[in-house]
Amino acid sequence: MATTFNDTQMTEFKRLVARYPEGKQKSALLPALHLAQESFDGWLSTEAMDYVASLLQIEPIEVYEVATFYSMYNLKPVGKFVFEVCQTGPCMVSGSDNIIDYIKKTLDIRPGETTKDGLFTLKLVECLGACGYAPMMQVGKIYKEHLTKEKVDSIIAEYKALATNN
Amino acid sequence: MGVKLLLDKANVPGIRTYEVYRREGGYRAVEKALKEMTTDAIVEEVKKSGLRGRGGAGFPTGMKWSFIAKPDGVPRHLVCNADESEPGTFKDRYLMEFLPHLLIEGLIVSSYALGSNDTYIYIRGEYAWITDILEQAIEEAKAAGWLGKNILGTGFDCNIHVQRGGGAYICGEETALIESLEGKRGNPRIKPPFPAIQGLWMRPTVVNNVETLAAVVPIINMGGEEYAKIGVGKSTGTKLISACGNINKPGVYEIDMTITVEEFIYSDEYCGGMKDGKKLKACIPGGSSVPILPANLLLTTAKGEPRYMNYESLSDGGFATGSMLGSGGFIVLDEDQCIVKNTYTLARFYRHESCGQCSPCREGTGWMEKILQKIETGKGEMSDIDLLWDIQRKIEGNTICPLGDAASWPVAAAIRHFRDEFEWHVKNPELAQTSNFGLQHYADPIHVPA
Amino acid sequence: MSEQTFFKVTVDGITIEVPAGTTILQAARQIGGQVAPPAMCYYSKLKGSGGKCRTCLVEVSKGSEKDPRPMPKLVASCRTTVMDGMEVKNITSDKVIDARAGVVEFLLLNHPLDCPICDQAGECHLQDLSFDHGKSKTRFEFQKRTFKKHDLGDNIQLHMTRCILCYRCVFTADQLTNKRVHGILDRGDHAEIATHIEKSLDNEFIGNVIDVCPVGALTDKTFRFKNRVWFLKPMDAHRDCPTCSGRVTLWNRGDEVYRVTARKDEWGEIEDTPDGQPGWICNTCRFDKKEASDWVIEGPRAISRASVISQGHYQGSVGMHKPTETFLAVNGGRAPHLLMDIHDESEVNQPTIHLGKIQGPSHGNTFNNKN
């Protein structure tokens, strides 16, 4: 996949940069990395990071430092859908352990792994701010809350269907 | 029903849109502030209101505003801290998701008071869909003339921009947030200089929590003095509490800080009592970093008086027998919960979120996590409990930013109040793998109302 | 030009006057000796450094003359400026000693303690710090942290396990070179110095990261395992270098040049050149000029830190000769202050108290009574 933004993505990139004063374009780095991740298969390759560095006119190391600091940037290829399941205190007291075990068993993967068909990656994450709707996980931009085993089944089915339809 | 100032319109259908929000009386505060008030008068009103920062630290907002430096020719910035990440806290999310215009309105008034022409909302990266909601609300407000150039013909220009974070709890610390907003790693800065002097791009900056800025709207509408009449003592106005854990009705509640903790947990207006008829064992009343309290100390103070949901009452007794209101993340644990395991997951959280800049936090949080895991998995020794105590003591107060304290307090409080549960784990390593210490003597002293 | 304002600050009972804007650490260094807090990350020649390692924490027992309230927490002395009338406790504060012992324990937690094979041994600040504040036993019983190895090229050797994340090398690359290729990657206890992609560090001034590194994380590859520093004789030398000042310290054995470093002061920092600029040296001087004939040797270098390096080499010449300067000359023209009233320190020192009346260990009377 090409690591350059298409026209739509470039327009969005320019909108992001325009929010900051002249000469402070580095401020757009975090949003620009989100955009790059969304644009380039859900993860940030070295090429993608170097590309963002060149667009923002900063050194590549400044991008690597930031991309490795924040937990949302994937520095390795991931599946089409990433299940980021919260395991912190409030989710734990509401039964997140059982949900995690169930997803592991159902998808037959361990945390950090991707299913053989390349569809699902399981990531264990820390508090996502949905403590009242626990247990929960994030899939892309969406929060899936009040998880039960049945709900997990239907979510997996939902995304499998989505993958076949595309 | 308690007074509601922020969420009073939350259930109006369509309140998320500009039209409905305006029809329901929205943006009156902007009109009043920009047309009738000087910037100093607004700061004065906020001071009179007694509003305290709703992000967790509880610092008086008006005072914070009055610290901002005003050097000639240097732009100033208001930054809204929407990096809500403290486990147990999800109140800002609720506010932004359902009442985006309330925040925008508060931001315009506050930006005017502080002289910020470019105001930034730094929102945690995971709240991606809320970013869209906020950006849409900003577009609507702009189209209606509440943002942009020469607002209401007053000559005041203001734009609001939303920036997503990248996944880092530490960016809720205001200087780490500023670093992140500048496109850097979220390493907290060493203070001084404080943001009010040198903040975003070294310009004078005020960073306020979402709820704090939203509260400016009712303060302007009703006047600071009227606002201060709600509540008690230095806990003025209303506070959003996000309740979670083993209760019947988890969710976000607006309280007027005069209700008791007991009422908050057991009344149907709020948490609706314990889930499945279980008994209350413990509670972390203000977000995961504040001290956990056993049921008896949660519901009544050490003096035997009822404990109230406000800043002073929750911290009554200091850390020995009290806790803090913090960010209002109210985590309730029932009799089936294991304090060791709960403390372990929190220690793991803080280790995961340490920026790694200063040595006590970088090394100490990981060490505490490892020891807690050791105890939790049945390999602990008695000396580990004292060691944990000593480690947390050496982190607390010795770090650059409050994350060190935030990581230490839960461990300290768990050992302080539940030491026998830790000892039980050590003495019964196998039993602890299959069963819980349970309620034991932490019996819920309150009879569940019928 | 307006008169410079001076503030009085007292550290461990010793009062000194310093220009406004001076940090507590710098003031304490002017007093010198044990009063100066240790500093692992602060480096006066690197802008923005300091505040991170927490070894220089001190107690401010009096904020200032105007506001005498003590500061609620220990403060990083390297990043806290003095106020007039401020009183600071360093080694006289139990809180400081306790916290510092904690910091040292944290710094050593994941440190491999591989001093026997570390080239920094003998001039390592972490060794000094552990000697002064460390414990002889560890309470950490878990596996120590390890990292994937990164190759930084032919000149600089990176041992990430030894790193204490002081950020000095990052500041050095930022401030001395025009393009930084290494940085701190990842976060928390996994944070590491790396380039992300294998890339050698080869800017003409990047070798200075070796000199600023307080531990053995960044060492000179051209000197690797060649010798122990305490077997070498440090000699000040210079050469006419087109790139840098060419003022260096050679580390010789016999006539052989084993290593070239910049000249360092008693705090382990790069010394200024006579024109007042920090004496950073270039890679050519450091890595390529390893013949005695490349250099004009000025004479032996005294290593003034408490170090094994000065031991045994120059009896009668360096380090042993009696100073001929006056106190005023040494002290930059400042008259000596009354450093410490010895009479206040212990009643043993009170001339008016008869030693025989003091409760304590046995003295003359004990024996007189017995006989």
Give structural notes.
The complex is a heterotrimer of chains A (about 170), B (about 450) and C (about 375). Chain A contains 7 helices and 4 strands. Chain A has about 170 residues and is of the alpha+beta class. Chain A has 2 domains: about 5-70, Orthogonal Bundle (Arc Repressor Mutant, subunit A); about 80-165, Glutaredoxin (3-Layer(aba) Sandwich). The longest helix of chain A is centred in the C-terminal third of the chain and has 17 residues, at about 150-165. The mean pLDDT of chain A is about 95. Chain B has helices at about 20-25, 30-35, 40-50, 60-65, 90-100, 100-115, 130-145, 175-180, 210-220, 225-230, 260-265, 295-300, 310-315, 320, 340-355, 360-375, 380-395, 405-425, 430-435; strands at about 75-80, 120-125, 150, 155-165, 205-210, 230, 235, 240-245, 250-255, 280-285, 295, 330-335. A 5-stranded mixed β-sheet of chain B has the order 3-4-2-1-5. With about 375 residues, chain C is an alpha+beta fold. In chain C, strands 2-1-5-3-4 form a 5-stranded mixed β-sheet, with helices on both faces. Classes of the chains: A alpha+beta (about 170), B alpha/beta (about 450), C alpha+beta (about 375). Chains in contact: A-B, A-C, B-C. At the A-B interface, helix 2, helix 4 and helix 5 of A face strand 4, strand 8, strand 12 and helix 15 of B.
Please provide a brief summary of the model.
Chain A has 166 residues and is an alpha+beta fold.
Features:
heterotrimer; B: 450 residues; alpha/beta; Rossmann fold; Ubiquitin-like (UB roll); 3 domains; five-stranded mixed beta sheet; 12 strands; C: 371 residues; Alpha-Beta Plaits; four-stranded antiparallel beta sheet; 9 helices; 13 strands; 18% helix
Question: What is the CATH C-level name of the largest domain in chain C?
Answer: Alpha Beta
Q: What is the succession of H and E elements of chain A?
A: HHHHEHHEEEH
Q: Which value, in Å, is the CA radius of gyration of chain C?
A: 23 Å
Q: What is the subunit arrangement here?
A: heterotrimer
The parts of chain A where pLDDT drops under 50 for at least 5 residues are: none
Q: What Rg of chain A, in angstroms, do the CA atoms define?
A: 18 Å
